[in-house]
Amino acid sequence: MRSHMNHRSLHRSLTAAAVLAAAALLVGCAAGPFSGLVGDAAPVADTPVVDAPAAETPAGQAPAGEAPAAESPVDAADGAHTATLVLDGQSFTFSPTTCMSGDEDVLVSGPGVDDGSQEPAFLDIDFVRVDLGWDGEVRIDLGTDQPMSTTERFYSIRVGGDDDHSVGQVAFDDVAELRVDGIVREGGEAELGEGTLEVTCS
After folding, report:
1. Closest-CA residue to 140 (of 127, 150, 130)
2. What region does 132 belong to: left with phi over 0, alpha with psi -120 to 50, or beta?
3. Of 83, 160, 177, 200, most Cβ neighbours within 10 A?
């Protein structure tokens, strides 16, 4: 009788142990093989990388990182200032590089050319206000288009002396116009007749 009871107790113990082992196995499977490791994280899904669209550069502006192109200065030879002298049978065209026509003085100078022979010439006008009139000279050096290179051949119109002359000025906005009518002399002596000089400073 005692032997039979011991056999039943042993059978119950083995059955309980088997149940506990099965339960532990089920819990371990549910948790996963790495669930007990510190710092383990679930895998992160790959995120596609999308390049941002390049910013459009406004018209007339340099792209980022590039210096803007320097603007070209206005060249007087391109028509910013103009001057012409017309006399009997001859005319000159000039592109002044200095062009100032004010209430107290007039200073105009620059290279030019004889329209007929294409000989270079240089224009120099220097007037100052005296009382109610002007005093000074229009001088055209012949055979050169450089400043400070006075030649023996030149034309001139004297303003403020005994020669008949007239000086007219018109100014509007940023443009000043000058007109000089007078006797043109060669070498400061021989008369060539009347001439008209017109200047536009802009």
Report:
1. 150
2. alpha
3. 83
Burial (0-12, 13-18, 19+ Cβ within 10 Å), 24: exposed
Digits of tens for pLDDT over the chain (202 positions)?
444 444 445 445 555 555 455 444 444 444 444 333 334 444 545 555 555 555 555 544 545 555 444 333 333 334 589 999 999 999 999 999 999 888 888 999 999 999 999 999 999 999 998 887 889 999 999 999 998 776 789 999 998 877 777 888 777 667 889 999 999 999 878 899 999 999 999 8
Burial of 88 (0-12, 13-18, 19+ CB in 10 A): exposed
Amino acid type, 122: F
Give 21's strand partners.
none
Would you call 143 helix, strand, or coil by DSSP?
coil
| Amino acid of residue 58 | P
Question: DSSP character for 97?
Answer: S
CA distances from 65 to 40, 55, 61, 62 (A): 45, 13, 11, 8
